[in-house]
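Help: why these numbers?

___
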Amino acid sequence: MKVALFIPCYIDQFYPNVGIASLQLLEKLGCDVSFPLEQTCCGQPMANSGFASLSKGCDANFVKNFRGFDYIVAPSGSCVLHVKEHLHDDKNPLEAEKIRNSVYELTEFLTDILKVKNINARFPFKVGLHNSCHGQRMLNLSSMSERVLPAFSKPQDLLNMVQDIQLIKPKRNDECCGFGGTFCVFEEAVSVKMGKDRISEHQANDVDYITGVDSSCLMHLEGILNRQGNKIKTIHIAEILNSSL
């Protein structure tokens, strides 16, 4: 299958190793992966700030770069959700529709499309799993505690395939970290308090790392950890799944 790798702009600028790990992981699992070199921002920051009408250039460029692929995969739930719900191109409406229906978050793709049952990876550390809101509540990557339904978690199922990992969930397993895109800018104090609450639960579990499917949430938590002088580190799930035996 022809897979295009979509790397959100903040990952490209701040966490390039996440993009590299995603590429290597997909190739290890037998995918023919392409990285369109002219891809840019999907337009989510503008849309979140109330300027969705100004993201038409981003939409057109996204369609230009990602048309013709069987699947588009990204290590970011929030950016994938934005593309799924908002990508439009007046000049290429059918292409835009096809892309909206074929873009996947990484763990979603590994679970639902590739149906991965084995990951040849090893990560001998205590790891706390953070469920990002976009992935959990909109992409259905994991169950929500307020709904009385059978519990599931696609990221957790994949992490359980990693050798020697000790995966520990916080008590409030699906609570927001406070990042929320522009929310952390406009409501800084509330955002930081929410992040500190998340970290305190992971710290109580004595974890070495906090992982998740969104580098944006992990970046928010990483900033708080660094200001605290905390020994806990953050790591994207792609880096764990791609770790060497």
